[in-house]
Amino acid sequence: MGIFGSKQTPVPPHPRREPRYDCPLTADAVAAVFDGCADFSRRTLYLNNDPARQVEMLFITGQVRNERASDYVLRPLTQSDALRRAATMDEAFDLMAKGGLYSLAVSERTTADQVIFDLVNGWVALFFPGKDRVLTLMTATEEKRSVSSPENEPDVKGAQDSFVESVRTNTSLVRRRLRAPELRVKEYVVGRQSVTPVDILYIEGIANPELAAEVERRVASIDIDALLMTGNLEQYITDEVNTAFPLTAYTERPDRFCAGLAEGRIGVLADGIPVGWLLPSTVDQFFRTGQDKTSNWMVASALAVLRYVCVLITLFLPGLYVGAVLFHPEMIPVKLALSIIAAKQSVPFPTLAEVLVMLLAFEVLQEAGLRLPSSIGQTVSILGGLVVGTAAVEAKLVSPAVLVVVAIAGIAGYTAPSQDLAGGLRIWRFLLTVLSGIMGLTGLILGAAVLIWRLARLESFGVAYLTPFASNAGKQKQGHVVLRAPLPKTKLREDYLNTGNRRNQG
Prior knowledge:
A hairpin with a 5-residue loop joins strand 9 and strand 10 (276-279). The chain is 44% helix and 12% strand. The chain is elongated and about 105 Å long. The chain is of the alpha+beta class.
């Protein structure tokens, strides 16, 4: 029995089948692929009502916008004077391919595989009897969620739009901000069943071409059935999956995404996922917010220091309390020690058990608040915390000092802008608390050393994860590590990104 269940037999290679559908390029063969699909439609049309000029029209209802199919395809086929004057079907085919139909995008397909994937993407396919070519026309519906304000990364002085589930809408949001022709958008298709478009964005001449090629290689090598969630992409392109800390930074804000591209990072957008990834990802990215560059540099620096301090508090405070009470009471001031002892006399559980139970209760309340509907989730988490905490103290199950320590550690964790980072901190908080309960402050120090060692071993696309605190082949972050310099003084891009053009200001 393994940690992830019973041991499985080795999985043999499962190569992709190319082409996926090796069938004749005929309307009947393509229709057979969609046999039994209620949304598949097939119509027989006559050019200008001439039965001698027959055209088979195939499409999938719901994927096609009815108005576009009617106005761009059906009306010209039945009413176009140019098509009426065509002497042969070959001439009519050439006219349609060169503007006889009103679709903006028209493609000539020579394989059934191409036609089938065009159909599932919302295109209309036109089959001509006896021809070995098929015309496909873009008539896809554009029904999607409208661009709205960011929910998880609000900014008072920043832009008020966010990414949506349509990858083409997201690339347009990026182009509206970065109008440079050097912006490259390369698309790959990921997922055997989902066939999800994944776009890789970077600015040519700024981004490291070797980094861009590596990101493209990893995305192209993803071989899964469906790319439907963020984890499907993140866990396939990261350097290390056996870590609680995030190795890919993401954002729902187009302005922050564009700022990362301008720094020399590589951006990734996936259809159906309303976030964008910025690579490589370093630990300082998870401490930044969208408003850091819109605020005064002194305010932004003070808030950055506050975030780092709060992360240390949420990580070490419970373990420090347990170690001091159990092994090093001489560290505690006399009055505080007497207060802790007086409250502890009526509590039947050891200090370590108290802290672990309250930490677990805090996590349970947090998880319940997230999973419940938003209308009652906040109420449950707030009232649950008050009721459970007050009841536990009054019932003499925990001491008031433990409740205060756990509450401070939990609230301090919410200052981390990245909830993925906060999740890793919570796991290590439990481990450090247990080590403190076993070995005192010695265990806490050893746990901290192991944590630093583990983080120092992590990399993101060849860049040390602990950047800006770590060096990358002698290429260190310019300026102060935590404090942010005034923007007019930030003349160069970060050296560790190996950008083609380090100058970002005149």
